[in-house]
Amino acid sequence: MPLAAQAVFSKNRSSANNKKIVKPKRLMKGDTVAVIAPSSAVEVSAFEKALQNLADLGLKIKIGKSARARKGFLAGTDKERLDDLHQAFADTEIKAVWCVRGGYGATRFLPDLDFKLIEKNPKIFIGYSDITALHLAIHQNTGLVTFHGPVAASNFSDYTKNHMAGVLINPSAPYKIALSPDNIAKNSNLFKTETITRGKCRGKLIGGNLSLLAAMAGTAFALRDTKGKILFIEDIGEQPYRIDRMLTQLKQTVDLRQLAGIALGVFEDCNPKDITSQSLIEVLKDRLGDLGIPVIYGLSFGHIRDQFTLPFGIEAELDTETATMTFMENSVI
User: Fold this and answer.
1) How many other β-carbons are positioned within 10 Å of the β-carbon of residue 73?
2) Are 151 and 127 in contact (CB under 8 A)?
3) Which of the residues 40, 66, 211, 234 is marked catalytic?
4) Euclidean distance between CA atoms 181 and 34, whole angstroms
5) 28, 86, 265, 269: which could form a disulfide with 234 (CB 3.0–4.6 Å)?
6) What is the pLDDT of residues 281-320, one digit of tens each?
7) 79-120: per-residue pLDDT in tens?
């Protein structure tokens, strides 16, 4: 490993030790939020939809300087995207930082994140998919509670909006979240819950998109310190053998047996194309069924219309019998 890379790895490993949990201020109608694109470029129609979604919530909007930019498959250069993120945290008028979409690209600038700036200016940071990279890096290095929730261009269904509001705007702990009725009604087997290992557990939440959790393994920003935590995982468009490979990588880089439990969302579009393949559920049972902790598949989060928001770092309870997640504390102040 080059000396420069060693320095980055060492700096971020050491700075993440024993970080105190920091909760941002709750979101209120009339607040100003920043819209940034830290990953993939955003189509014009999707961007306009994102702005309308946030306006419908009664929020004022500041658009990142480079949020509409495009550099190939990225929303501008690494520096442009990182500058937008830093500016959003530095701007005292902005109360929340909302990622317009995921895609790919956030991992590229992780070594240059200004964690001290973020620590000094704690605020709501929300998104999912590729934004997992930023959640892990920010939460593990600053202690800030960040939010795995809808990107600004998501479909803001009533279920999604209600549970987002229950976490960010009108928090009241304990806050129990059940499955989306619309998700339950879907014919796809991928929306059906499956208990892999029965049980009830409590622990602080950590996790995100499986592809990103695997891609970050072995880096200075990898998932770590999992003891007693509830790991939540989701993904989309991956064949079962790829899910197997990524879970195997996680098992070999993180001691998953130390977790309190695992909550799996809906892995949309992950049915096998090869009839000789194992099914998604068979892979999940094979890779996660021997951990001796509660594990359930099919909770209402992921790349789906109806999704609830998961705060990194707060105490939660997972119950496989009722297929519910309960937040035991508020995630905002």
Assistant:
1) 11
2) yes
3) 234
4) 32
5) 265
6) 999 999 999 999 999 999 999 999 999 999 999 999 999 9
7) 999 999 999 999 999 999 999 999 999 999 999 999 999 999
pLDDT of residue 118: 98
User: Which domains can be identified in the chain, with CATH numbers?
Assistant: 3-156 (3.40.50.10740), 175-327 (3.50.30.60)
317 labelled catalytic: no
Active site residue 10: no
For tokens 């961007």, the residue is 47
pLDDT of residue 18: 64
| Active-site hit among 39, 154, 303, 331 | 303
Tokens 């029965």 -> residue: 198
Contact 203, 209 (CB under 8 A): no
Do the beta carbons of residue 283 and residue 162 sit within 8 Å?
Answer: no
Question: Which amino acid is present at 213?
Answer: L
Token reading at 189: 């087997």
Residue from 40, 66, 129, 211 carrying the catalytic annotation: 129
Strands (E), 70-148: 94-99, 124-127, 147-148
At 113, the amino acid letter reads L
Residue 14, pLDDT above cutoff 80: no
Active site residue 129: yes
Task: Please state, in angstroms and as integers, the Cα–Cα distance from residue 285 to each residue in 149, 171, 261, following that order.
Answer: 26, 34, 14
Helix (H) or strand (E) holding 315: strand 315-319
CA distance 306 to 128: 14
Is 298 exposed, middle or buried (CB count within 10 Å of its CB: 0-12, 13-18, 19+)?
Answer: buried
Given a contact cutoff of 8 angstroms between Cβ atoms, the answer to whether 143 and 21 are in contact is: yes
Q: What is the token pair recorded at 45?
A: 């129609």
pLDDT for residue 78 is more than 90: yes
